[in-house]
Write a structure and sequence with these properties.
Elements: E1 3-8, H1 17-30, E2 35-40, H2 52-69, E3 77-80, H3 86-95, H4 100-104, H5 107-115, H6 123-137, E4 143-145, H7 151-168, E5 176-178, H8 213-221, H9 239-252, H10 256-262, H11 267-294, H12 297-326
Parallel strand pairs: 1-2, 2-3, 4-5
Helix pairs in contact: 2-11, 3-6, 3-12, 6-7, 8-11, 9-11
The structure holds tryptophanyl-5'AMP.
Tryptophanyl-5'AMP binds next to strand 1, helix 1 and helix 6.
Length: 332
């Protein structure tokens, strides 16, 4: 079976609907047909300043949510990045074949470093995409399920794999992004041309998986639309309604065309009310299961430790292969 790898940062107390629809939901689906490795990327989460207690909590909350949405640790490898030292080791060797200018062109770094002060623009934030490339390449990854915002980082991972292979001989599998167009960019409910993001200006623009469902329902009802009261998919002219249609279709399994038909001539009130119900139905069981996993942190930590051991069994030999190709002497 082809290998899948993906990661998510533990930088919030909840995943949001963009993370879920753009990435994590696809991770669950791919378990059917792929050999999957999923990672809570805590090394990435310290690149822009953090609090240790908060990081610890968010790492567990992230893992619990992944289990709650259906990542099965019996068939997939689920682990925390810092528990597998090969990631930091792999990042070093890849950083030595990355051009300074090449790294400087990463748009996410430019966005994030321009927003914050000194702590926001650490060298770690600058080399972040190289660590991400190491994550992916250490698992002989064929496909990487992510949202649209990760496309440029995936391109860098491919370039680095190809460069390493051509300099030192075939070593890394060249990974392909797996970006599902319909949900690759879920947008902000208050600012529907911007992506839904943890750093959104208003909390009303994002739906957190773990927030009070009543709150989510209210956010859907007050989502920005337009003045022509027609439920129709048109990203250019009707970005707000189009985003709600994408969310509705993804969560209900109905097609956008079917939804347009059902709401023809009915305005936005019913549409939003029904979507709010769908959202609540999806969130409630995820919240219950997440709470159950968090109730037993010792067991959660055991699941993650076992995951890290399985991850090392894959990443260790791949790193050893790369070390050998580079010309490092074999360790004892
Ligand atoms: P992160 O933690 O920001 O986001 C996790 C995943 O959610 C997707 N996503 C979205 N998809 C659709 N619409 C949105 N509004 C939206 N917002 C976020 C992201 O594309 C991502 O797939 N650099 C990565 C983490 C990472 C990684 C990796 C990913 C580290 N190593 C290796 C893949 C492979 C990140 O910051 O994701």
């Amino acid at each position: 079976r082809p290998r899948v790898f993906s990661g998510i940062q533990p930088t919030a107390d909840s995943f949001h609907l963009g993370n879920y629809l753009g990435a994590v939901r696809n991770w669950v689906a791919m378990q059917e047909s792929h050999d999957c490795v999923y990672c809570v990327v805590d090394l990435h989460a310290i690149t822009a300043g953090h609090d240790p207690e908060v990081l610890r909590r968010r790492t567990r909350v992230s893992a619990a949510q992944l289990l709650a949405v259906g990542i099965d640790p019996k068939t997939s490898v689920l682990f925390v990045q810092s528990q597998v030292p090969e990631h930091a080791q792999g990042a070093w060797i890849l950083s030595c074949i990355t051009g300074f200018g090449e790294a400087s062109r990463m748009t996410q770094f430019k966005d994030k470093s321009s927003k914050g002060g000194e702590s926001q623009s650490s060298v770690g934030l600058f080399t972040y995409p190289i660590l991400q490339a190491a994550d992916i390449l250490l698992y002989d990854t064929d496909a990487v399920p992510v949202g649209e915002d990760q496309r440029q980082h995936l391109e860098l991972s491919r370039d680095l794999a190809q460069r390493f292979n051509s300099r030192f001989g075939e070593t890394f599998v060249v990974p392909k992004p797996h970006i599902v167009t319909d949900t690759a960019k879920i947008t902000d409910l208050q600012d529907p041309t911007a992506k839904m993001s943890k750093s959104a200006s208003s909390p009303n623009g994002i739906i957190d998986l773990l927030e009070d469902p009543k709150r989510s329902a209210k956010k859907i009802r007050s989502a920005v639309t337009d003045s022509d009261a027609e439920v129709r998919y048109d990203v250019e002219k009707k970005p707000g309604v189009s985003n709600l249609l994408r969310i509705y279709a993804a969560l209900s399994g109905r097609t956008i065309a079917d939804l347009e038909d059902s709401y023809a001539g009915r305005g936005y009130g019913d549409f939003k009310k029904d979507l709010a119900e769908v959202v609540v139905e999806v969130l409630t069981p995820i919240q219950d299961r997440t709470a159950a996993y968090l109730d037993d942190p010792a067991e959660l930590d055991r699941v993650l430790a076992a995951g890290a051991e399985s991850a090392r069994a894959i990443a260790g030999p791949v790193l050893a292969r790369a070390y050998d190709r580079i010309g490092f002497l074999p360790a004892a």
